[in-house]
Amino acid sequence: MKTLKPISRLLIALSALLMVSAYFVPLWQILMWAPQYPEGLEMDIWINTISGDVKVISALNHYIGMKHIEVEMFPEFQYMIYVVGGLIGFGLLTALSNRRIMVWLFCFLLIATGIAALVDFWLWGYDYGHNLDPTAAINIPGMTYQPPLIGTKQLLNFTAFSGPDIGGWIFIGAALLAIATLGYEIFSKKKRV
Amino acid sequence: MKTKIIYRILSALVVLSSLVVWQGCKPKAPGSVTMGDAANKAFVPPGKYDEFYNIVSGGFNGQIGVYGIPSGRLFKILPVFSVFPESGYGYSEETKPMLNTSHGFVPWDDLHHIALSTTKGEHDGRWAFANANNTPRVARVSMKTFRTEEILEIPNSGGNHSSPFITENTEYLVAGTRFSIPMGNKDVPISSYKENFKGSISFIKVNPSDGKMNIAFQLRTPGFNYDLSRAGKGPSHGWFFFSCYNTEQAYTLLEVNASQKDKDFIMAVNWKKAEEYIAQGKGRIEKAKYAHNVYDESTHSATSTMQQEVTVLDVMEFPDIVYFIPCPKSPHGCDVDPSGEYIVGSGKLAAMMPVFSFTKIQKAIANKDYEGDFSGIPVIKYESALHGEVKKPGLGPLHTEFDDKGNAYTSMFVSSEIVKWNVKTLEVLDRVPTYYSIGHLSVPGGPTAKPHGKYVIAYNKITKDRYLPTGPELTQSAQIYDISGDKMQLILDFPTTGEPHYAEAIPASMVSPNSLKIYKLEENKHPYAAIGEGQAKVVRKGNEVHVSMTAIRSHLTPDNIEGVRMGDVVYFHLTNLEQDWDVPHGFAVKGNAGNAEILVMPGETQTLKWTPDEVGVIPFYCTDFCSALHQEMSGYIRVSPAGSNTPLKFSTGVIEDSNAGK
């Protein structure tokens, strides 16, 4: 059974605890600018809700037939708190268990969660941008309005940006820390032998 | 023959050249060209902000104009004492009470002076106060919403000119009567002026937390005219100074009869003393009727309350409240310098300007250094109060403001110029022409203990050739001068609305961060507000039909209304559901006699009253171009004959073809 160095256990615990921030700060942000909105519009995605200029964005998007954005649209908000809670719990368990296999699993879980989140977000964006009300006032043949997954995209008069918010960056940092710890374990083990 | 022609040509040339010389000898027309880097100094690049807000009285338009300095750009016309069909001010049911008075609804007034609230003698950016010169009133305007929040009528006043000047910490603002009148609606001969006519100075307490005003007390003063005033500050805090004219007590042809005496008065009022007498219960309660109108930001509605009494202190009975200081020839301006020590009297018909010293006034009072009395009130000896005279400043001095370097700037109406002079040495330093006949002037922070300096703005009474002509009635003209150097430099001419009298300028940084963007829907307490389309409804109460309507880009809910009958009165209560900056919706209905539109800000509710005068289907629509589908933002209301039984119904987006199934 491969055990862990004390420092690694500490780092894994730190990685898990960093993710607690997900309950207090927004994870993802969507920013939009248009000629009429030089100050920009902002939508922040939290672990269980959305905030920012959601009403304004919905009011504008109804012209092209996009759905009114409501918290209830996202079943994810019901279970995300448990998913992140599970990740934190697993991280702490990893630190306690003192087994390297657990670090492997922890890293795998983190990466899998991240990929799943992005896939989920892309699927929602696809539906939000493609599934348009046929009676909408503005109908541009061939035009769809899927928001960018990550990065910037021009949608009619709006420039939309999508990317991690503070919570997202902390999450990425926590995952990198866990992976680095794993790397350190593997690397230093070889050296010692 | 040839020589004759040459001779003729030569003589023609001589005549021509002498004409040219003759033209050259004539005095030149007033200068008009700005010099050097003037354009740069007044230029604010597109998209950039001005350094100062200029809050400018509109005179006979009853409004305030909000401009940027140094660009001179107009940002807003803010209705105060006059109805404003553009926004529905004075037309919407919510704002009508703002213009209520003891005489009923007065839709117009003459707004002369601005006072920006101060704390410790310095601007605090909270409120602007303004006076109504005709039907005596004062108003308070929020610098957060740029809206009139309160109007208080002044009883026992013949016209509120000497107003709304404020004390150092905005404890009080004053309202001095321009015309003396017989108090208490007395039916007396006009010729009994000396016997029956009295002056009145109201001290209006301002609540430091919310700005609400009430008349704390009125001073009953000798009968003549009260013109302008300023509060003391620093060492002179606790005193107020008023310029007085017509001490001749003329009641006809004032032009001549009120210009006879060499000296009128500056009236010094020890208001702290008056406060003490009031606290001791020495004031006399008198019956009076005056309206107090307050706008509530959460109900988006004004209420008007009729007040019944006022506390009066007769200064003839309390001789240590008031003192007169002789001041030459019908003084207009009565301005206190930033230190609070010097009081500048501007005798508009005098050839010099006296500057009085507060220390000397106090010493003269202590030594009873009086030259006599007027109506029992001591008149301090001119020399005993005098710091010195500014010699030959110009013609027709009206008003003085101050910079941050110990200089004063006085407007000269007759000689049409601004004169810069040093307050201590009284030496004239510079003069520049204005175009034409300047009235008031304004230095940013000029009346405060801490002037911001940098510019002086001239508000002129005559425009003539300054802009492209627009028929007999011209815009008013203002000029901005850079005063950062030794010499004043004209940098911009800009047109103004109404006829500006006094104005104040305040750094943008003290105001713009607090500017409200939207009213929050969840804070809307209007009794007919529809917070969401689900709450939109039409309710009949006898012959009143109340439509709680919502507006959001780009539809009105409901937009089909039926069941209204001739003889009904319809109230459209429109709630703007937007919570986005700069998305107002407007509302108007066809043929609304005697009424205007309403302009409703995001989160706000306003009510437009409409009495249908014909049977039919009447369109209504959004009047503020709100979105790409603004033209579609409309609806119909059906008016049936009186007594018909068309059912009351309302909807939006319900397609119900009456031909279906037939």
Q: Can you describe this structure in just a few lines?
A:
The complex is a heterodimer of chains A (193) and B (662). Chain A is of the alpha+beta class and 193 residues long. Chain A is built from five helices and five strands, in the order H-E-E-E-H-H-H-E-E-H.
CA-to-CA gap between the ends of chain B?
106 Å
Output the CATH homologous superfamily of the domain at 524-651 in chain B.
Cupredoxins -  blue copper proteins
Q: Could you tell me the strand content of chain B as a percent range?
A: 35-45%
Round the Cα radius of gyration of chain B to an integer and report it: 29 Å
- Which oligomeric state applies? heterodimer
* Main sheet specs of chain A: 5 strands, antiparallel
Number of helices of chain A: 5
Described by the principal axes of the CA atoms, the overall outline of chain B is globular
Cα(first) to Cα(last) distance of chain A is 16 Å
Low-confidence spans of chain A: none
Mean pLDDT of chain B: 94
**Biggest interface, which chains?**
A-B, 9 and 11 residues
Low-confidence stretches of chain B: none
* Record field, number of beta strands of chain B: 46
Mean pLDDT of chain A: 92
Number of domain modules of chain A: 1
Specify the helix fraction band of chain A. Answer: 40-55%
- Kindly name the structural category of chain B: mainly beta
CATH topology name of the domain at 524-651 in chain B: Immunoglobulin-like
What Rg of chain A do the Cα atoms give?
A: 20 Å
- Classify the secondary structure makeup of chain A into a structural class: alpha+beta
